Amino acid sequence: MQFPHTRKRRLRKNQSIRNLAAEHTLTANDLIWPVFILDGFNGSEQIASMPGVSRMSVDLLIDKLEGLVTKGLNAVALFPVVDKAFKSDDASEAWNPEGLVQKAVKSLKSKFPELLVITDVALDPYTSHGQDGIINDQGEILNDVTIRALVMQAQSHADAGADIVAPSDMMDGRIGEIREAFENKKRHNTAILAYSAKYASVFYGPFRDAVGSAANLGKSSKETYQMNPANAREAIDEINMDIEEGADMIMIKPGMPYLDIIKTAKEYFNVPICAYQVSGEYAMLQSAINNGFLDEKGAIMESLLCFKRAGCDAILTYYADRVINWLSDT
After folding, report:
1. pTM of whole model > 0.90?
2. For the chain, domain boundaries
3. CATH of domain 24-220+231-329
């Protein structure tokens, strides 16, 4: 039997032709670096459940960003590690104009005016109970009361100079309220990246260790407001509502276990689609890398390319600093 004239292997015979025929590529423009920030000066703490990732004070972050921005890093996302003394039931520290995030935004924008600074709009780092919302005596998350707090938090971030605010709380209706507040304050150019399809996932465990909310949360869950991992079509409703309320971009979280949601969202919506390669994904990959089970660069780059293939326009990844350096060397 003769082979057909079409041989797909012709386009795979060497790296040059594989590059030419590649449907997707990963660049520095695709990456957002999530960082855990501490108050104070010259402070750094290793995160046991995320080997290779540290909490750091803003001065050390600025030092690290010097080289990364030069090499093409466009965006960072800030996640505060809040001292217990500033945690409360009403999370009022979240909108303190002299709070950790607000001061960090001012410092970063002063040093790197072109760097996109993204802030997390959520109350869990600031609540004494570790939930993303304000609760009543029965432990119920109060949706509309929480939204009022989120609006104040988002406004304080915008006032500090944040380019993009990213509500990650999953309260119903919060995008519309934040957008209306921005318009009323004539903050027309502050973008909203909505965590529209954020699932109640076990893959967030190391992140909660990193920001210090795990102990506060205890055995409680976030299943009454974050999405059920069993659901896919519901994500389309969530994304659509956030876009209609004024979101400029949307986030899907976690990332790799939810590539189907990313792909569907890309097919349905004409806004930038972001995904978060979350702490649990990082911990799994890094543990395998550290044990010699996976090649470091190969595993990381392949995982991120899969996000691009599924439809991501941007990826939050703790590997962004490493990848930026690799890309600049090619």
Report:
1. yes
2. 24-220+231-329
3. 3.20.20.70
